[in-house]
TrEMBL record:
Protein name from the UniProt record: RING-type E3 ubiquitin transferase
Lineage: Eukaryota, Viridiplantae, Streptophyta, Embryophyta, Tracheophyta
EC supergroup of this enzyme: transferase
Species per Swiss-Prot/TrEMBL record: Psophocarpus tetragonolobus (Winged bean)
Keywords: Metal-binding, Transferase, Ubl conjugation pathway, Zinc, Zinc-finger
RING-type domain segment(s): 112-148
Statement: the UniProt record of this protein carries the keyword NAD: no
Keyword Transferase appears in the UniProt entry: yes
GO MF annotations in UniProt: ubiquitin protein ligase activity; zinc ion binding
SUPFAM superfamilies xref list: RING/U-box (SSF57850), TRAF domain-like (SSF49599)
Pathway in which this enzyme or protein is active: Protein modification; protein ubiquitination
Amino acid sequence: MPHTYKCAISDSLCKSSSIIDGKKCLFERRTERIEGRRFRKGNTQGFGEWMDLESVECVSSSDGMDEDEIHANHHHSEFSSTKPRNGTTNNINSVGPTAIAPATSVHELLECPVCTNSMYPPIHQCHNGHTLCSTCKTRVHNRCPTCRQELGDIRCLALEKVAESLELPCKYYTLGCPEIFPYYSKLKHETVCNFRPYSCPYAGSECSVVGDIPFLVAHLRDDHKVDMHTGCTFNHRYVKSNPREVENATWMLTVFHCFGQYFCLHFEAFQLGMAPVYMAFLRFMGDENEARNYSYSLEVGANGRKLIWEGTPRSVRDSHRKVRDSHDGLIIQRNMALFFSGGDRKELKLRVTGRIWKEQQSSDAAVCMPNLCS
């Protein structure tokens, strides 16, 4: 006869919707990822609610058995497996607590199985209860990536509600961040966390590599073959045989090491509206609050004329495009660049010089004094 499982929660009988090996199965919600202490009970709408195993009695009963007989024998069937092994059906009395699934944290239940990122409302689920985030839902063509069933538009409201009560560490805690946040505040913090990895500052190929500064310096040197220099003064020469042809984002990158820090010098040609321009700017390989401790100057000129730019280097937290589009650097119009090149103006020859210094607070005058690199 078919068996049912009774859950002693508020004296209510939990009913299931599927039969496996002649037994009705109570637990139908993501059994492969259920925590050792928490699980979901089935729901005809595809949702579920959390229950503690410590407060649940799962009992096996046959038709015709009364409730007293059920409670007298319930320990024989607790956590029993109904899946056949080696072609035979398991004896219900032979399976003990070792059949409990490995412990899985609630945080892992909130992990999208597709992108592995934490899920935030709206959290979607299929009719079998498998969840995924709203971003990935648009990428899987309305098919559950776990069971391949049609997704529909079912919200996993129970999981969203559970997330509201969680407090979790920042995902960069292994990199040193000590902060703990409510689940729905954590994502916002992680986008600006000072311990988050840096993106590769190489502008030419939208490089996706991330890491700390020493790692990125080695990456720029070994993988992108960027020139490395020591010292806080530089002399950059840019030559172009046909200055009338200015393609968008023609650029160069050089890394300088001084004051124990690394700086990226960018020089590029691009279209600004209808006019081609040349631009040079400096980025600090570190956070913005550290970048404010330094200043730099850029100079270009010839034939008795020169342009000078002074400013604070931008952090590599700001993307290359963001800095360029903000025009935060030395900008040279093409006509002026050709004037600086001299000769017949048929060849561009620009020489950009510059230096970096550290602003040092003077205790006597309470003003910033430049600390020049030797």
